[in-house]
Amino acid sequence: MTQKDALLEKLIKHPLDFGDLDFKHLTDPATGLQFDDLRMALKRVYNINESALRTESDATTGVLGQFNRYMTARRQKAYFRKINAGFVGTDGHKVIVAEGDSWFQFFGRDIINWLDDHHDYAIFSMSYAGDWLANILFEEKYVEELSIHKPSAFLVSGGGNDMVVRLGYSLSAHSERAVRQR
Fold it and tell me: pLDDT tens for residues 14-58?
């Protein structure tokens, strides 16, 4: 077993024991870590299949889903207005693609709002409050958008919901083992 495989196995089987030093070793270029390795590990950590991802996140359903669709459409319309007005090619102007969760799509001011205050940025946002990093990675909507918009920067935000749920599962399993051992 390679060092990379051993570290990925530790991340998957014992996520609460996976520390900063383990992360440093895993992300060392010498390990040969690839995006597909992380995608596979994430899928195994959360022990969910791709079809389950769509039912686990409430980002696309109910009132939250309506809010997300409305805000995303509104932001994308503003982006295209700016692009159609000749934004691209102007000195100092930057195109940004953003994919993420509530850090980029919040009921009040969020990071995208703050960035949008800088008129040198045109931001194409696909963010949904409540979305999961696992959803973002598995759906890969950003891949097409990156090739279409050719941004100066790609912003991604996520992981909070994923970690809270995984931590809850881990703590629950740990508590059950502790109760059985008594």
Answer: 777 888 898 888 888 888 888 788 777 776 766 655 555 555 567
**How far from each other are the two terminal CA atoms of the chain, in whole angstroms?**
36
Within the chain, residue ranges assigned H as helices are 3-13, 20-26, 35-46, 50-56, 62-84, 111-116, 133-139, 141-149, 160-181
Q: How far apart (Å, rounded) are the C-alpha atoms in residues 18 and 41?
A: 13
Single out the residue of 79, 42, 78 nearest to residue 158, CA to CA: 42
Question: Which residue in 61, 100, 93 sits closest to 79, CA to CA?
Answer: 93
**pTM > 0.70:** no
Cα 121 to Cα 166: distance, rounded to the nearest angstrom: 36
86-124: pLDDT as tens digits: 998 778 899 999 999 988 988 788 999 999 998 899 999
What is the rounded CA–CA span in Å between residue 104 and residue 111?
A: 5
